[in-house]
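BUG: 3D viewer hangs when loading the predicted structure for this chain

Environment: internal workstation, default settings.
Expected: structure renders.
Actual: progress bar stalls at 90%.

Input used:
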Amino acid sequence: QLQLVASGGGSVQPGGSLRLSCAASGFTLDYYAIGWFRQAPGKGREGLSCISTSGVSTNYADSVKDRFTISRDNTKNTVYLQMNSLKPEDTAVYYCARRLSRLCVGEYNYWGQGTQVTVSS
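Structure tokens produced before the viewer hung:
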């Protein structure tokens, strides 16, 4: 059974950090670019970042650039999102998705379950 499970969310104060993990099962992550998304209450889905299979190519939304870092460990079949300098507006459900290709182009064809991130004082 194919699964992408995001974990590592929680509650943190503004300025704090969290590291999210996206673990794959039922398939090998090596062959796919992976993206991170979030959706806040009452808002649409926002694409945050993507990483190619090799990890060499990454991209970020302006809203998280210089604060979030995407990485992957193919030996652990896991992609990470390090989130620093968190702001209240970062509060959302975060989830990962698998792209059809090895690069950060084209469509996503599989979406995982999310993890809640709450930034509040």
